[in-house]
Amino acid sequence: MEKRSMWSFRFSTASLVLIPAAVGINYIGKLFAGVLKLPLWLDAIGTILASMLAGPVIGAISGAVNNIIYGLTMDPISFVYGITSLFIGLIAGVMTHKGWIQSWGKAVIVGLAVGLTAVVISTPLNVAFWGGQTGNLWGDAVFAAVMAKTSSIWLASFLDEIIVDLPDKVLVVLAAYAIYRGLPDNVRQMFHRNSQVEELD
Q1: Residue 81: which of 29, 41, 121 has the closest Cα?
Q2: 112, 156, 164, 170: which has the fewest C-beta neighbours closer than 10 Å?
């Protein structure tokens, strides 16, 4: 029963409305990081929040739609990483369904899991499309240093990605969790989540 509800494709109106809201939150996070020139992306807060509220399917759709819209309007490179965003939504949604949003400590673990997922998926994409680099100043500095010492593009690309994605995704999950905790109970219950997830404390 739990498994079926977690992977349900029968969406409520609230869940469907959540998708554009999640994309908007992602945009704001990315804009914030860009304006402040942070060495992070902060572009998955909405995706994670959608996963927490409405499950892995809505989270995955929110992540993929975000990359499509961003690719069409801002940066075509975003299309390539749509699959990364999709899996971010899936992992966050599954872990939420299993009870991993009941404390700040557990939220950090979710962030690490989401970050490692992003690293594993994005590293081959970086190697295939951008010579192994991420385009992030700090990450690419690590890439250059590792390449100078080892000439291993896969190791350099993996470390480039991990130095950015792990802190970014931990911060993103904590931000989404803070928003989630701040929502009234009746708002969370609108999304018909499993009782294990709805018990916040």
Answers
A1: 121
A2: 112
